[in-house]
Design brief:
- With 307 residues, the chain is α/β, with parallel strands linked by helices.
- The protein is 38% helix and 19% strand.
- A hairpin with a 4-residue loop joins strand 6 and strand 7.
- Helix 9 packs antiparallel against helix 10.
- The longest helix is centred in the last third of the chain and has 20 residues.
- 36% of the residues are buried.
Length: 307
């Protein structure tokens, strides 16, 4: 039995998948199986995959059903005690699995493990920023406290004991964009996270990904399922309000007045920072200018996070 099951959902990633696969197959910790789930790709992704020959690879082609369905399919096929995912356009540094195995050995009673990431745009690479103070290279954190800037559970840089999915369930296939956040909330309500500050993976920003497309804004996650938990968990409430703020800003940027009004009403705006309260009230044209200006600062390396 392998120690890790690595699951990669693939949909039209012919320009990225080779780099991603090499980053997995070149891991310094070799005890893993690699489950590739081709989610109905219509490009040359399959041809690129079949160039690789490794006994650890298990390849499946399924009808297109979205990333959640593909990940759930991989979970069902996984044979290892620990499950990890990597998106088909991201990549791991060679020591990712080795560092995760060491974290598991150090905290054998914990079930979720993650590490820092860096973000690659077309022009610049910058480290993600987290909302907690660093106390140790490897520490146990509360998911909601630690994820107010960037989530400490990144899909491409985390490991889960298989029992976690038995407890919290699988990815919600009704959500086309935001399914990761939905899953991490469910996990955060049940488990702490062992977090390594070492940057072990790179998230590659793909402007063509589904989560950037307007038609999927209406299919983002519904936070109402957590309303009961919010009442007794102020950390969760703060985390959800920040996500609602993000969705509201995106809705205003694409002139989606209906969804903007929905997110605007659901959040506790008085708990947001003054800056965020002001941004919510700005006209769309001003927001668009600020976003472009912020991206310019990032590309000039004058900022290390996007707007």
């Amino acid at each position: 039995m392998p120690y890790f099951s690595v699951i990669i959902p693939i949909y039209n990633k012919e320009n990225f998948i080779e780099s991603t696969l090499r980053s997995v197959l070149n891991q310094s910790f070799p005890d893993f199986e690699l489950i590739l789930v081709n989610d109905g790709s219509t490009d040359q992704s399959e041809a690129k995959i079949k160039q690789f020959s490794d006994e650890r690879i298990r390849y499946y082609a399924i009808e297109n059903g979205g990333a959640s369905q593909a990940r759930n399919f991989g979970i069902e096929k996984a044979e290892a005690p620990f499950i990890t995912f990597i998106d088909a356009d991201d990549f791991w540094y060679p020591n990712f699995l080795e560092e995760m195995a060491a974290a598991i050995a150090r905290f054998p009673d914990k079930l979720i493990f993650s590490a820092g990431i860096e973000v690659e745009t077309q022009k610049v690479v910058f480290p993600a920023q987290y909302s907690i103070e660093k106390l140790a290279d490897l520490e146990v954190v509360n998911y909601f406290d630690a994820s107010l800037k960037t989530t400490v559970i990144c899909t491409s840089c985390a490991v889960f004991h298989n029992s976690v999915f038995e407890k919290v369930g699988y990815f919600d296939t009704t959500i086309r964009s935001g399914q990761d956040t939905d899953m991490w909330i469910r996990m955060g309500l049940e488990y702490p996270v062992v977090f390594s500050w070492k940057i072990l993976a790179r998230y590659v920003y793909d402007p063509n990904s589904l989560s950037k497309k307007r038609e999927y804004l209406n299919q983002k996650m519904n936070f109402s399922k957590f309303e009961t938990a919010e009442k007794t968990n102020p950390k969760l409430k703060k985390f959800i309000d920040l996500n609602l703020f993000s969705f509201a800003i995106r809705a205003k940027l694409i002139n989606d007045k209906e969804n903007f009004a929905l997110y605007y009403q659901k959040m506790d705006r008085k708990k947001l920072s003054l800056k965020k309260q002001i941004l919510l009230e700005l006209p769309r044209i001003v927001l668009q200018f600020l976003v472009q200006f912020d991206l310019l600062l990032v590309n000039l390396k004058l900022r290390n996070s996007a707007f």
